[in-house]
Amino acid sequence: MPRRSRDENAPRTEGELRSAAPNDPEAWPLLVAFDLDYTLWDLWIDTHISPPLRRKGDVLNQLIDRRGQTLEFYPEVPSLLAELKERRIHVAAASRTSAVDLAKEALGMLLLPGPSGEHVRAITYFNSMEIYPSENSNQCLIVLHT
């Protein structure tokens, strides 16, 4: 959903984009929805990961399954999630997987750096989660109505 220009009466030609400074609150979306598999991490959780998951102490952004397979966000994801939270942008997970509980468990176990240097669980960066064994388009509709 696009944000309105501050000057709603200013004439615009169709397709014209307004420029915005990075600190302009209108330069940021109201909601960002992420798929999990091959968007936030580089695998399909329902086919590549075998429970149980474990974390070695307070290691950041890494879990290990029973076969030794690692599960971690892409390197840019933790800082992106932190930036979105700092800007108070609604963050949603909208993902199709047959391993619903495992995906939620992974988000609850993954530790990320917090704003003050403390460790926080990845799940705390998400305002909404629609993780089901069905099509993503249906989930996005649910997220948008919450």
Automatic annotation (TrEMBL):
InterPro entries: HAD-like_sf, HAD_sf, MDP_1_eu_arc. Residues 1-17 have a biased composition (Basic and acidic residues). Pfam families: Acid_PPase. Residues 1-21 are annotated as: Disordered. It comes from the Eukaryota. Transmembrane segments: none annotated. GO terms for molecular function: acid phosphatase activity. This is Magnesium-dependent phosphatase-1. It comes from Tremella mesenterica.
